[in-house]
Design a protein that fits this description.
Elements lengths: L5 E3 L2 E4 L3 E8 L2 H13 L15 H9 L10 E9 H7 L6 E4 L10 E3 L8 E5 L2 E5 L3 H27 L4 H4 L8 E8 L1 H11 L13 H17 L1 H9 L6
Parallel strand pairs: 2-6
Antiparallel strand pairs: 1-2, 3-4, 4-9, 5-9, 7-8
Length: 245
C-alpha cells in the first residue's frame, strides 16, 4: 500500500505500514539438513549447504505431517513501522523476538495512523460472524477529521509537558495508540507460518482467519519477503491449507 503521509503542522498522518528485511539466514536447505539428522546423524551435515531444489517432497511431507521443529532452523530479522495498536496485536505472537523504540528514552515522532479511503469502516454482523463494508463518504470524512483533531491535540499536550520538564515516560501517557512505533522483529519460519495462518485472510486457508486489516498489511509484506527466501517451504505451507506445522 502506498503511504498517504500528509502534513498538518508538526503532525503527520499515514495510512500504511512498512516492513523491511534487515538480514536473514533462511533457506529451504535449513529445513532439509535439520530434518535429515533424525535418520542420517552426522552425515546430515553434508546437506547444510546443499541445493534444496530436489527436496520439495521432504518439505511437503514435514508440512503435511506437522513435523514443525525442522522449520525453526532459520532466522529472519525485519524492521517494521506500524501504529502501536498494531504492535499490541503483533506481540501476542510469543514465538517472535522484539526490540521496540522506547518512549521513555526518546521523544516520539508526531506521526499518526489514519485509515485510507480503501479501508472498510462499517462492521456488519456480530462478533465472530461479521464482515466489513466500505462506509459512506461522510463516514470517511468523520473518521479523518476526528483522528486529526484528536491526535494533533494529544501531541500538543505531550509537547507542553516535555517543555515543562516532565519526564518522557510520563508525558507519553497522553499519546493515542494510533502513533507509529518501530521495532526489530526476529522470527524463524515456523513462527512466520503461525503468524500468517492467523493474520492473513485468504481463500486457500483451511481454517479461515479474520484479522484486523492493519495487521494483515504487515502480514502481507512478511509473506512476500519470506516467500522469496524459502520458496519451497512457502509453497508447501500454501498447499497444506496455510496450516502452521
Amino acid at each position: 500500500m502506498t503511504s498517504t503521509t500528509q502534513p498538518a503542522g508538526e503532525v503527520r498522518f499515514r495510512s500504511d505500514v512498512t516492513v523491511e528485511l534487515v538480514k536473514a539466514s533462511a533457506a529451504d536447505s535449513d529445513v532439509v539438513f535439520a530434518a535429515r539428522v533424525s535418520t542420517q546423524g552426522e552425515r546430515s551435515r553434508a546437506s547444510v549447504d546443499a541445493d534444496a531444489s530436489e527436496s520439495g517432497g521432504l518439505i511437503r511431507f514435514l508440512m503435511r505431517e506437522r513435523h514443525g521443529s525442522p522449520f525453526e532452523h532459520s532466522v529472519m530479522t525485519f524492521y517494521v513501522s506500524a501504529p502501536i495498536f498494531v504492535w499490541r496485536e503483533h506481540m501476542r505472537h510469543r514465538m517472535t523476538s522484539y526490540n521496540e523504540e522506547s518512549g521513555r528514552y526518546r521523544v516520539l515522532e508526531p506521526v499518526f495512523y489514519t485509515p485510507g479511503h480503501e479501508r472498510n469502516l462499517v462492521q456488519v454482523g456480530k462478533p465472530g460472524a461479521y464482515e466489513f463494508e466500505p462506509g459512506s463518504e461522510q463516514q470517511h470524512a468523520e473518521v479523518t477529521d476526528a483522528v486529526r483533531q484528536a491526535t494533533t491535540e494529544a501531541y500538543r499536550q505531550y509537547q507542553r509537558m516535555l517543555a515543562a520538564g516532565v519526564a518522557r515516560e510520563v508525558a507519553r501517557s497522553v499519546l493515542p495508540v494510533s502513533i507509529y512505533s518501530s521495532a526489530y522483529v526476529t522470527m524463524n519460519a515456523r513462527a512466520m507460518m503461525n503468524f500468517l495462518s492467523l493474520r492473513r485472510r485468504t481463500d486457500d486457508s483451511r481454517f479461515p482467519s479474520y484479522p484486523q486489516r492493519e495487521i494483515e498489511m504487515v502480514a502481507e509484506q512478511y509473506e512476500q519477503l519470506w516467500a522469496g527466501l524459502m520458496p519451497l517451504t512457502h509453497a508447501a505451507f500454501v498447499a497444506n491449507g496455510r496450516v502452521a506445522p
